[in-house]
Specification:
Two copies of one chain form a homodimer.
Chain A (H helix, E strand, L loop, with lengths): L2 H7 L6 H12 L6 H10 L6 H13 L3 E4 L7 E4 L7 E4 L5 E3 L17 E14 H6 L2
Helix pairs in contact in A: 1-2, 3-4
The structure holds a DNA duplex.
Chain lengths: ~140, ~140
DNA sequence: TTGGGTGCAAAATGTTTGCAATTCG
DNA sequence: CGAATTGCAAACATTTTGCACCCAA
């Protein structure tokens, strides 16, 4: 599924700007901020505005094609929704994020989910220190 | 431990404003925004500015007395660090948050934590629908 | 007394909105 | 062509910063 198809399937018109945004998200290994998209695309041939990026991300989020996340307690980040959901290890030393290849909660019976509260999703981030920063940290 | 002692232990001067902020956090059952603190204290006898609140929360966060959280993908919230850490059920219907009384991950061996990445903390939020909203939602 | 703290204003940052001009279908 | 989309400016909300005055230690 390429950018063009993704946009079509959302019922959105395929514009130069939107294609570039979706392509950028497809290439991104990590959640990215609106500003990162803006800077990256501005450096290429693509000229577009931040408001367009926000609007597009908003629309794609509504269609569940993009997910808004908030990693590292800072800005909003956005990532393409791929297989299921995704969690990250976040290094407190260098801020790098490492995607986990599976959900640690998968298949787990959560004590909180009972008839009084129906759990439909979760968000999990693991913090710590990567190999390099473990050394530097001491 | 009261507000006064908490501030002292952080090496911060005990001022009227800071005391009020910490007391408010102690009474709060849930993470609160800077603005909520501002409005609540303004209504009482306490006069103080938002910048003072942000500065104080910043300092308390640095001392690990307060934790910054971002629930519901919206604004920054702050909560007093009590016993260990805390997780919430968040209702997507009414936005209400319900504190869990224990950490579902407690005692769990996380597959990601090995010698290459040392896990020191995590953040987990569970989303779903509370009893009332399960009915309304359909 | 004095260095940290606060009031206050102003700036910086991130995001949203309104509208005319443009472009996709 | 007509509706959706964009460029652009301006508004908005949140958070940070600078500085003179103030007050806790």
């Amino acid at each position: 599924m390429d950018a063009h198809e993704i946009l079509m399937s959302c019922g959105l018109k395929v514009t130069r700007q939107r294609q570039a945004i979706v392509e950028y998200l497809m290439d991104a290994a990590m959640p990215v901020t609106a500003e990162e998209i803006y800077r990256a695309l501005s450096q290429k041939e693509v000229s577009l505005w931040l408001s367009t990026i926000y609007r597009t991300l908003e629309q794609l989020s509504a269609k569940n094609v993009v997910r808004k996340t908030m990693l590292r307690e800072e800005k909003n980040c956005y990532e393409l929704v791929r297989e299921g959901h995704r969690h990250y290890l976040i290094c407190l030393g260098c801020n790098r994020m490492i995607a986990l290849d599976s959900c640690p909660l998968h298949g787990m019976k959560l004590p909180a989910g009972n008839d009084r509260f129906q759990i439909t999703g979760h968000r999990l981030e693991l913090y710590g220190y990567c190999e390099k920063c473990q050394r530097d940290h001491h």
